[in-house]
Amino acid sequence: MPMKLFKCDETIPEREKHIYIKEKGEDTTQFLPSAHVETIPGSLSERGCSYCGAKLVIGGVLKDTIQLIHGPVGCAYDTWHTKRYPSDNGNFQLKYVWSSDMKEQHVVFGGEKLLKKAMLEAFAEFPDIKRMMVYTTCSTALIGDDIKPVVKEVEKELGDVDIFTVECPGFAGVSQSKGHHVFNMGWMTDKVGTYEPEITSPYTINVIGDYNIQGDTFVMEKYMEKMGIQIIAHFTGNGTYDSLRGMHRAQLNVTNCARSAGYIANELKKKYGIPRIDVDTWGFDYAKEGLRKIGAFFGIEDRAEAVIAEEVAKYESKLAWYKERLTDKKVCIWTGGPRLWHWTKALEDDLGMHVVAMSSKFGHQEDFEKVIARGEEGTIYIDDGNELEFFEVLEMVKPDLVLTGPRVGALVKKLHLPYVNGHGYHNGPYMGFEGAVNMARDMYNAIYSPLMKLAKDDIRGDKNLPSTNANGNGKATKELSEQVVSLVQQQVKEATSQVQKPAKEAAPQVQPQAKEAAPQVQKPAKETAPQVQPQAKEAAPQVQLQAKEIASYIQDRAAEVTKLIQERCLWQFHSRAWDREENINGVLNMAAQILTGEKVVLETLIDRGFYADAKILSADLEIRFSWLNSMENSQKKAVLEYVKAMLIDIVITKSKNGELHYSLY
Fold first, then answer.
1. Residue-wise pLDDT tens digits, 525-549
2. Most Cβ neighbours (<10 Å): which of 82, 226, 313, 592?
3. Whether residue 75 is found in the same domain as residue 166
């Protein structure tokens, strides 16, 4: 049974359904960890609250907006200066945060007057800033403060300001993911379409789900500028309040973090017909694929290839140097949601590393579908992992490196294990080609740091002091280890001498036998060759596949294609069933047209979105599967029809994802 109950969880056996170990031949239709549900009492969860998901992850990144938290000052402080998302305007968003600073008296008598006072003071303090976001917290929600009328009063009184309310107290959901959803849907309802951006290019996109951690957004901006593409809005890295109001004018939504921002991408598709393509921009292969998708959508593939060639020329040799030193190193990833499946294949394919365990704090089952499809056999997947599970996993997999945030990172450092900050990065950006090298460098420095060698030394003065790992007889582990090493060395020495002696004796006898046998082997082979050739010619017609055999052959090839799609692509795991089936049909229909040389007609932006994914898929299939070249067009279409049916069966009909139903969106 692949679902695993750790020893530390014996008193809370409910944790078993949250832990999965991938075994051979399994897929997400068979097993999927329970995710995005309430933390089980007794489990030491490291989840953030819903308010944190709205403010810290999304809203607080905007570079021109006052962030005012209506609640006790601790709620403001906890989400201030804890993430590294710079901007190009002096980092206004990192320097300041505002709080209404509720006290006990406001909990008793209400805090609406206090909120209005704080809002007016904030605008007065920064007269050049005309945009604000106001967040509720647990205390203000529990006493029932109605913040929207207060916001309208301030807007009317000041006249030239625009304010967005985020009503998402910490207790609103099971994790920070609820805050992502509330912010996305609220912004879509209240603000998108209320501002008209200036269009300066025939190619326009929204970059969704990128928060400019240590300059990730700047990397994407550089690529898009070279391709002549205008970014209408960044949701929300290095973004502005008004640019997000103009998201409805983009031709394409390029989605990076689908967990925190996939909602608004889907809503823009439904309301405005703007297609969504998902990209991985971490790692060389995925950065190439992402740029090619965008280029294919706009019909500017040559520009995408030019950017790829330039970046690869700069950084490929540097990445190769790190790959040589990181290959076969084992990694644990203990982060939020999307980075699990963004980083898994990048580390394995680009650097030859092995991701052996991963835990998601706020991921949904959709995220586990993606990462399990991409992961290696034997990998451990955990939803909402607690600290005791973390220690047990480390003992099980013995990683060379842990990618995680500062909280778990503190534990990792105490255990003297190499650690890289997977939330705020060590020395980013990590996105794109340059970022892949930066990330590899940080991992290399962590693993090969001289401090790691020192950390293993016992620096205590008394050598006779027993180790904390002393055995039951009171003998120190160090002494026991020395005895074991000595014993093993002696056994190896004896075994080596025994193996060498028979080998030396046997060698002279084997050589003449080999010489005598060689002519005898060659002679029958020469005599047999003329006989085999006519037999092969006679047998050729008999090898022709019959109809039944052809069907079986096509099904087998379809299974190969389906497996590749699950491992490499994202579109088959989009949000809910309505979107999944539409994407599966749309992309595979386009892929069939491309592979058979038919004329592709792109009537709508949605068609272009399907085409971008289909073109990447078709190129991948032609590279990986040589049997495509010998197939007739009708057979190619038949293969993709089977793939369609298989994917719909896997990711919709049989999927264990409990959130697939449209009503749960």
1. 455 455 545 554 554 444 455 778 8
2. 592
3. yes
Q: Residue 186 domain-assigned?
A: no
With contact defined as beta carbons under 8 Å apart, do 354 and 331 qualify? yes
Residues 117 and 70 in one domain: yes
Question: Is residue 306 in a domain?
Answer: yes
Distance in angstroms (rounded) separating the CA atoms of residues 111 and 144: 9
Give the Å distances, CA to CA, from 559 to 24, 27, 122, 554, 566: 16, 13, 60, 9, 11
Lookup: tokens for 319? 């990445």
Say how far apart CA 286 and CA 596 lie, in whole Å.
Answer: 26
Please choose, from the candidates 197, 131, 126, 125, the residue with its C-alpha nearest in 3D space to the C-alpha of residue 165. Answer: 131
Q: What is the pTM of this model?
A: 0.86
Closest residue by Cα to residue 209 from 240, 172, 237? 237
Last residue of a domain, one of 260, 279, 311: 311
Are 109 and 152 contained in the same domain? yes
Residue 433 three-state SS: helix
- 443 with 394, same domain: the answer is yes
Express each pLDDT in 552-588 by its tens digit. 999 999 999 999 998 887 788 877 777 889 999 999 9
Residues 307 and 326 in one domain: no
State how beta strands 204-210 and 419-421 pair: unpaired
In a domain, 331, yes or no: yes
Element holding 80 (H helix, E strand): none
Do 272 and 361 share a structural domain? Answer: no
Tokens of 124: 């007065």
Question: Looking at this protein, which amino acid is placed at residue 652?
Answer: I
Task: Look at the chain and report how many structural domains it folds into.
Answer: 5
- Cα torsion angle, 605, 607, 613, 615, sign: negative
125: Cα separation from own chain's centroid: 40
- One domain, residues 92 and 125: yes
Do 656 and 566 share a structural domain? yes
Sequence-distant (6+) residues with CB within 8 A of 85 are 61, 93, 94, 211, 212, 213, 214, 237, 238
- The side-by-side arrangement of strands in the sheet containing 98-99 is 98-99, 66-70, 131-136, 162-166
CA distance 417 to 404: 12
Could you give the CA distance from residue 363 to residue 145 in angstroms, rounded to a whole number?
31
Domain residues for 277?
A: 204-311
Q: Which pair of tokens denotes residue 397?
A: 């997999």
- Please give the distance of CA 69 from its chain centroid, rounded to a whole number: 30
Q: Which residues contact 170 (CB under 8 A, 6 or more apart)?
A: 49, 50, 51, 52, 75, 137, 138
